[in-house]
Amino acid sequence: MFKTKYNYYGNLVEEFLSSLPLDESLLCSSMKYSLVAGGKRIRPVLALASAEAVGGDPLILIRVASALELIHTYSLIHDDLPCMDNDDYRRGKLSNHKQFNETIALLAGDALLTYGFELLAQSLPVDPKKQLLIVKETAQAVGWMGMVGGQVLDTLGENRKLSFSDIEKIHEKKTGDLLKASVRLGAILGGGTDDDIEKLTAYASNIGLAFQIKDDVLDIEGDAKELGKPVGSDEASNKSTYPSLLGLEGAKLHLNNCIAEAKGSIESFGLRGEFLSQLADYIANRKK
Questions:
Q1: Is the separation of the CB atoms in 74 and 147 below 8 Å?
Q2: Is 94 helix (H, G, I), strand (E, B) or coil?
Q3: Of the N and C termini of the chain, which has fewer Cβ atoms inside 10 Å?
Q4: Tens of pLDDT, residues 102-121
């Protein structure tokens, strides 16, 4: 049931992304290269599932949910650049800057980011005030107060021993804020009550941390072929991670606690929250 529904949401997103009117120019080729390279599509799936959980129609939100994937893809392209994580592979393929070049990769990321906001701003059959709110919240989630700010803290933290609170702050911003914005997008545009939105926000905060903890664990014990990129890069770059601070078993325990907190936040949703609860387990158990 979970896999069927996840694939249903994911296929809606894939169809939309494939339909984008990108031409055959070098820039658009670079954008498409990373955008359709696969991936879990967790952010748009979260948005669609959250809309349905509060009684909304996810089908009218496919465009804005998919916009989150454009924004996420921009961040991956920039993450892989030599000035950032300097990764040669992403999802089993050459990183964008290796397939094209650094300049084109940088500009492709810029183009995906701005295109994402163009899609978020196009007319929807919802209250315009709600749509304006989700555009604002998404911008905050990926800007200097959110993902970009987290990236800066992460970069400054390299070759330094960070505290547990330092790591939590980095990943709340770097990974968690866009996941939180995805859930809130669906809940707000789906017509959720303030109580619904608050509970789903708490859920998203916990799965955001869980997602990053799992990434840290996979960097130690994951399979490079499944991950589509080398393992051990965190240790090689001397980064402070959950396992380096808590130990591998301690990190796994913290992961399980975050998942339990996430599922507890939406327990009152009953059957409406079942998919999201299963999605939390999926994040904890994923292999890539």
A1: no
A2: strand
A3: N
A4: 999 999 999 999 999 999 99
